[in-house]
Amino acid sequence: MSERKLQQITIRANGVSKKYGDSVEADFVLEDVKLEIRQGEFFILLGPSGCGKSTLLNMMAGFVEPTRGDIFVHDQPVRRPGPDRGMVFQHPDASLFPWLNVRQNVEFGLKMKHMKREERRLISNRFLDMVGLSEHETKFPHELSGGMKQRLQLARVLANDPEILLMDEPFGALDAQTRSVMQAELVRIWLHTNKTVAFVTHDLNEAILLGQKIGVMSRSPSAHIEAVYHVDLPYPRDATSTEFVELYKDIASHFNVTGRSDGVQVGAFPPSLTKLGGLP
Ligand SMILES: Nc1ncnc2c1ncn2[C@@H]1O[C@H](COP(=O)(O)OP(=O)(O)O)[C@@H](O)[C@H]1O
Ligand SMILES: [Mg+2]
């Protein structure tokens, strides 16, 4: 989407730091995070496990307060969650209502907005269909597999039509086939709407498949965004193309690609990359 004009800044952090607890000795998880996400942008936060990706996303959502500095959404400091930001959690159980069935979960937010029944139906039909859960609309969350719950969570957030999607490793627990369907579907939705997406992952392949920009985070403590890559490749992206592979190698150089301890998933090399990079 390089042809998109330079848009206004939707999410901004300038010198945001976070430590949990009041203890003086406690390390800062994040320190001096600088970040700009523009309107309509698909922005990836990529970093090793434990570097503070969820913490940063939770601060954007208004669930966690920064220790220093502020995150701004449209120039307003984030103080609490709001309907402009929809969060897709890593673990769907945190957000689904166990006493509501699949369709009722999708329609919950719409009902809160006093939307009429017929209109709610239309919207829930659309998103249940999209995530492949139409056949399961009367089931309850405990009757669904992990992947189905995750798809339900996504349908529910999309039904609420937030301007900003905050996504915390949303596809990490899905099987490979479902993951790639959902990735493609997310890109399609994003291309057809003007949503701003902040998407957390530790999977480099996923980052390059999806993102227009990739903010590479350093390790905790005192993690921050140490580089931002622009991914100027058309969608759907081809993980075997030369440009993809080159970018993969570039970004992987930020991490320990032999993968002993840093937790960034760079192991699933396409065969071409294994050949080109001479990696194990
Ligand atoms: N509620 C919390 N209380 C105390 N420490 C926390 C809390 N949430 C996260 N942490 C710590 O902050 C660090 C970053 O965690 P997190 O943001 O979940 O990282 P990531 O999502 O990148 O794996 C970890 O060391 C984690 O233990
Ligand atoms: Mg996390």
Task: Describe what this molecule looks like in 3D.
- The protein has 280 residues and is of the alpha/beta class.
- The protein has a domain at 1-55 and 65-84 and 216-280.
- 32% of the residues lie in helices and 20% in strands.
- It contains eight helices and ten strands.
- It has helices at 53-61, 102-112, 117-130, 146-159, 176-192, 204-210, 242-252, 271-277; strands at residues 9-18, 30-38, 42-46, 71-73, 76-77, 85-88, 164-168, 196-201, 213-217, 225-230.
- The strands form two sheets. Strands 6-7-8-3-9-10 form a six-stranded mixed β-sheet, sandwiched between helices.
- The radius of gyration is 19 Å and the shape is globular.
- The two termini are 34 Å apart.
- Mean pLDDT is 89; it is low at 258-262 and 267-280.
Q: What's the layout of helices and strands?
A:
Layout: E1 9-18, E2 30-38, E3 42-46, H1 53-61, E4 71-73, E5 76-77, E6 85-88, H2 102-112, H3 117-130, H4 146-159, E7 164-168, H5 176-192, E8 196-201, H6 204-210, E9 213-217, E10 225-230, H7 242-252, H8 271-277
Parallel strand pairs: 3-8, 3-9, 6-7, 7-8
Antiparallel strand pairs: 1-2, 1-4, 4-5, 9-10
Helix pairs in contact: 2-3, 2-4, 3-4, 6-7
The structure holds adenosine-5'-diphosphate and magnesium ion.
Q: Approximately how much helix is present in the residues? A: 25-40%
Structure annotation, total helices = 8
Principal-axis shape equals: globular
Instruction: Please outline the major beta sheet.
Output: 6 strands, mixed
Q: What is the SS-derived class?
A: alpha/beta
Mean pLDDT: 89
Strand segment count:
10
